[in-house]
Specification:
33% strand; six-stranded mixed β-sheet; Elongation Factor Tu (Ef-tu), domain 3; 3 domains; Rossmann fold; eight-stranded antiparallel β-sheet; alpha+beta; 8 helices
């Protein structure tokens, strides 16, 4: 029998070489799409026909160089306007790691898109134009990254080629951002001077900046350690579906399928099923590839128990000595995603892990000025792209943790019951 410390070490070893999700953000024309295009191009992660299409589109537009931004700006409207208007996801891999990139818009009116792209990210890349330095959008995006509990942030000072690769300007921008970021809750912040257009310090180390002693952006992405970001202590397994094949081969099989939200589970572990409070032991854990000796966040598995307990979607399997909070009155930070403003005393549907419920907005406590981080208690009108603190009461108790402790069990979304639109993303305090 291994100890919890050994469980964590095994999980960390697995995750350290696995998937890294990262998001990019910055002001308009800071070069986000060009940077991602350069990453894909220089790491040879694009197909020849894709490159041919981009080269042809660049020639048609009269561009002097190949416009690598077109590798991510996939929508025709985006190409015509020259801006990124939605979250564009790209996938690539190197021998060391797999990556999912969320390229989010830089416009102030698309804060909601950054929230969407950053909500599952392990790391955020915030771009700054070397000529302009830290601007309002830089602070906005860094604050959102902090709010969403992203543990790693890379400030890429782009367009260094336009300031003759000057060290002094880079260090001034670094100092300015360090002063602002001291107010944030991001433990790992790194600074890299780059030129996405020329390729300096993106995939390969730049010969134009011998004064920079750090690694390239890709080297940093390949080697950043994200294993400690996951909660391997608090075991949480929200049940998404009960599997009953009712076949001759699996006549008595009753499995609970879902994605582990925290902790480590192994056959033989004592568990409690909530909200019923009934206890049992884990009989088996399996994926489509077969049975497992252990499973941990963020793996998707099917679990069976030794006892036949009435369990359904929305229930949670946890450890008896380490249970989530249970309650109906919940405080949360809300990122508003809809043009229709948040309604005080309004009623909304909510989705929390695999559970569906309804709620009423009890109180709006304050709105955050996300450029200065100040609380605005005299302006309680929360509209599109606003962030504020509210309290809600749910129709049924939720099984939750604080967002700080667990990004999965600590988050929920608000849904307009009439339009079925997701109107708010909430982080439980």
């Amino acid at each position: 029998m291994t100890s919890p410390t050994q469980d964590i070490q095994t999980s960390e070893q697995y995750l350290s070489m696995d998937l890294l999700r990262f998001t990019t953000a910055g002001s308009v024309d800071d070069g986000k799409s060009t940077l991602i295009g350069r990453l894909l191009y220089d790491s040879k992660a694009i197909f020849e026909d894709q490159l041919d299409a981009v080269e042809q589109a660049s020639n048609n537009a009269g561009d002097e160089n190949v416009n690598l931004a077109l590798l991510t700006d996939g929508l025709r409207d985006e190409r015509e306007q020259g801006i990124t208007i939605d979250v564009a996801y790209r996938y690539f891999a190197t021998p060391k790691r797999k990556f999912i990139i969320a390229d989010t818009p830089g416009h102030i009116q698309y804060t909601r898109n950054m929230v969407t792209g950053a909500s599952t990210a392990n790391l955020a890349i915030v771009l700054v134009d070397a000529r302009h330095g830290v601007v309002e959008q830089t602070c906005r995006h860094a604050f959102i990254a902090s709010l969403l509990r992203i543990q790693h942030l890379i400030l890429c000072v782009n367009k260094m080629d336009l300031i003759d690769y000057g060290q002094e300007q880079f260090e001034k921008i670094q100092q300015d951002f360090m002063e602002f970021s001291s107010k944030l809750d991001i433990p790992d912040i790194r600074y890299i001077p780059i030129s996405a257009l020329k390729g300096d310090n993106v995939v390969h180390k730049s010969e134009n900046m011998p004064w920079y002693e750090g690694g390239s952006l890709l080297y940093t992405l390949e080697n950043v350690q994200i294993s400690s970001d996951y909660n391997f202590v608090d075991s949480r397994f929200p049940v998404q579906r009960v599997i009953r094949p009712q076949s001759d081969t699996y006549h008595d099989y009753r499995g609970y399928a879902g994605r582990i939200a925290g902790g480590v589970f192994k056959p033989g572990d004592e568990v409690i099923v909530l909200p019923s409070g009934l206890t049992s032991k884990v009989a088996s854990i399996a994926t489509i590839d077969g049975e497992l000796e252990e499973a941990f966040a963020p793996m998707s598995v099917s679990m069976t128990l030794e006892d036949d307990i009435d369990t359904t979607r929305g229930d949670m399997i946890a450890k008896p000595d380490n249970q989530p909070q249970v309650g109906q009155d919940i405080d949360l930070m809300i990122c508003w995603l809809n043009e229709k403003k948040l309604t005080p005393r309004g009623k909304y549907a909510i989705k929390h892990t695999s559970k569906d419920a309804r709620c009423i907005v009890k109180d709006i406590k304050y709105k955050v000025n996300i450029n200065t981080l100040h609380r605005m208690e005299d302006d309680l009108e929360i509209g599109l792209n606003d962030i504020g603190r509210i309290s809600i009461r749910t129709t049924t108790p939720l099984l939750y943790d604080s967002y700080k402790a667990n990004r999965t069990t600590g988050s929920l979304i608000l849904i307009d019951e009439f339009t079925n639109e997701t109107v708010g993303a909430g982080m439980i305090i």
